[in-house]
Amino acid sequence: MAKAPTFSLISILSLGICLPTNSQNTKLSNTQAERTHLHFYAHKALRGDVTAVVVAQAATSNTYRYRFGEMTVFDDRLTEGPNLSSRVVGRAQGMYASADISNPAYLSVYNLVFTEWGLNGSTLSILGRYASLSAERELPVVGGTRNFRFARGHARIRTYLDDLETGRSVDEYDVYVMHS
Ligand SMILES: *[C@@H]1O[C@H](CO)[C@@H](O)[C@H](O)[C@H]1NC(C)=O
Ligand SMILES: *[C@@H]1O[C@H](CO)[C@@H](O)[C@H](O)[C@H]1NC(C)=O
């Protein structure tokens, strides 16, 4: 595993944005919009030191192949490299609900909570469809805090590891956001 590319907090470009004026009393203001790319790994454990717990389900959830209606809350470690013992850069905290009757696809609502890279206290909020079987899942980033105020963007997620025996899985993330 090449070490260098795993760290990437890259401001790719800055754009000057002119906010529209709707009255002569309003000042024309310029704000800088930045574009940031983040690359990291998220570790989920369904057994052992669990990071995800089922909190609710329909009475009929287990009659569906993909447990339609079941909701899970999670708090996964984010690391710079793919190894669980790699440098911790934050957490992914939120929930997902099985929301597709005939496919393993989930409504995912969660926050990426960063603690490193000069981003301690900054968060990004994700809301989208996580289709487990897709080689690459794309979820919208709908907002953010601190360094990521006014954030809009998307996360591309690929499975790095999915070990059914140990119940451990690792997702690789590339997150692209525009923010102030
Ligand atoms: C992860 O790191 C640990 C401790 O440094 C090491 O023993 C292990 O082999 C590593 N695992 C992988 C998959 O690289
Ligand atoms: C992040 O901020 C919190 C609260 O201000 C602080 O307790 C913590 O030590 C900081 N973590 C890092 C890695 O700087």
UniProtKB/TrEMBL annotation:
Q: What is this protein called?
A: Dirigent protein
One Pfam family of this chain: Dirigent
Q: Which GO terms describe its biological process?
A: phenylpropanoid biosynthetic process
Q: Where in the cell is it found?
A: Secreted, Extracellular space, Apoplast
The entry's keywords: Apoplast, Secreted, Signal
Question: Where is the signal peptide, in residue numbers?
Answer: 1-23
Q: Give the source lineage, highest ranks first.
A: Eukaryota, Viridiplantae, Streptophyta, Embryophyta, Tracheophyta
Q: Which Gene3D superfamilies match?
A: Allene oxide cyclase-like
> Could you tell me which species this protein originates from?
Salvia divinorum
> Quick one: where is this thing mainly located?
secreted
Q: Which GO terms describe its cellular component?
A: apoplast
Keyword Secreted attributed: yes
Similarity annotation: Belongs to the plant dirigent protein family.
Subunit info here reads: Homodimer.
Give the function comment from the record. Answer: Dirigent proteins impart stereoselectivity on the phenoxy radical-coupling reaction, yielding optically active lignans from two molecules of coniferyl alcohol in the biosynthesis of lignans, flavonolignans, and alkaloids and thus plays a central role in plant secondary metabolism.
Task: State if Amino-acid biosynthesis is listed as a keyword.
Answer: no
